[in-house]
Amino acid sequence: MSPSRVLVLNSGSSSVKYQLLDMRDSSRLATGLVERIGEQTSRLRHTALTTGETREQNGPIADHQAALKTVAEELARDGLGLDSPELAAIGHRVVHGGLFFTEPTVIDDAVLTEIERLIPVAPLHNPANLTGIRTAMALRPDLPQVAVFDTAFHTTMPESAARYAIDTRTADRYRVRRYGFHGTSHAYVSRATAKLLGKAPEDVNVIVLHLGNGASASAVRGGRCVDTSMGLTPLEGLVMGTRSGDVDPAVIFHLERVGGMSMDEIDTLLNKRSGLFGLCGDNDMREIQRRIDEGDQEAQLAFDIYIHRLKKYIGAYFAVLGRVDAVAFTAGVGENAAAVRAAAVAGLEGLGPAVDDGLNAVRGDAARLISPASARVAVAVVPTDEELEIARQTYALVGKDK
Question: In this structure, are residues 179 and 218 in contact, taking their beta carbons and an 8 Å threshold?
């Protein structure tokens, strides 16, 4: 029997998320998270789903190499070690693939070089992704390692959607264009929504709303992305937990000239001190909703601004797609905040979508419709599964090579 397991790694600047899956039935064998890498308070939380046991380690983990070695040790304790002949490949989440990477790719020196060249447009993410890849390659140099890119799903956008209206020579020289992110989530959710409707992906037009601390929308026509809200970086688009989303570019010049702020200070403002956090001091939608219920006007205004931007994108993507079969909510806020879903669709009944209050109030882990049967456009809640999507793409590629 050929190897069927895939280890999925998502390496952040100070964390590593991981899942081990068996692709014969897409089952999870183990999951875990190493956080605060490089600090004295590092922590690893590991769950073996084969036994239901969860173990935790606390104490300093110096770097990503030490983190992955610790992960390997935990997996080995469950008989799932990296030296297992059943391990087919390691799949890595890579945030930015530019235009060069339009599909999952087996990693070699040339791929590493290109990912490194993209660091200027993904300075917070690609370096950490590279560290995880290089560490995993050192641990298992004989094993196929596959990069799955957040941007790949969005490379099908037409130039009319991907280009900014700036001088083309300048744009091309510095790779300035709209790339989009959360692509593995948008790909998974758009296909899962089609399945929920009992149709093939190529027959369905879907607006996907990935609403977490980071948030993005996409217009998917027949399984292909034709527009998305994030741009050169994950800063553009919707109001997010700590990111501003869309602002007039002249705000930056104004803050520099009039406010005397440095570029680094403005970068920090827009990425880490804006969005819901900048508006009301909280970036957790649950806390914001609690404050609204207590009559907090600051929290209410933050919520209203969040919903206003979200509605603008939903309406814009109705115009882009022409025909919409479903609006799908996903990720932490999209899957759990019934108030956000109801408010985002309220008033759009003329376009077709509507929410049934009873269905919307029901919580669950399965994909489900929350629109009444009479709605011309379905509204769905579809839990995202980026790790499964990465594993599927990785295994499909490794299988092709055999």
Answer: no
**What is the C-alpha to C-alpha distance for residues 28 and 195, in angstroms, rounded to an integer?**
21
For 41-81, the pLDDT digits (tens) are: 999 999 999 888 999 999 999 888 889 889 999 999 999 98
- Residue 58: strand pairing partners: 43
Nearest one of 148, 166, 318, 308 to 227, comparing CA atoms: 318
Q: How far apart are CA 93 and CA 234, in angstroms?
A: 15
Edge-first strand order for the sheet with 27-35 is 53-58, 43-48, 27-35, 16-22, 5-11, 87-94, 145-149, 105-106
Query: What is the CA 34 to chain-centroid distance, rounded?
Result: 19
Cα separation, 202 vs 189, in Å, equals 14
- Order of all β-strands in the sheet with 326-330: 224-228, 215-221, 205-211, 326-330, 378-381, 368-369
Cite the active site residues: 150
**What is the mean predicted confidence (pLDDT) over 317-323?**
98
CB 237 within 8 A of CB 217: yes
| pTM as predicted | 0.91
Q: Rounded distance, CA 370 to CA 349, Å?
A: 14
Q: How far is CA 78 from CA 35, 151, 341, in A?
A: 21, 34, 40
Q: Token pair for residue 395?
A: 């295994």
Structural tokens at position 169 = 């020579």
For 3, 231, 386, 398, the CA distances from 23, given in Å and listed in that order, are 9, 33, 14, 12
Phi, psi of 6 (to 5 degrees): -130, 130
> In terms of DSSP H, where are the helices of 101-174?
109-117, 126-139, 159-162, 168-173
Label residue 198 left, alpha or beta by phi (over 0 means left) and psi (-120 to 50 means alpha).
left
pLDDT at position 270: 96
Closest CA to 6 of 400, 396, 401: 396
Name the one residue in this structure whose structure tokens are 């050192």.
138
CA distance 301 to 23: 46
Closest by CA position to 115, among listed 176, 170, 107, 10: 107
CB 178 within 8 A of CB 246: no
Question: Cβ neighbours of residue 342 under 8 Å, at least 6 residues apart?
Answer: 355, 357, 360
Q: Do 182 and 216 form a contact (C-beta atoms < 8 A)?
A: yes
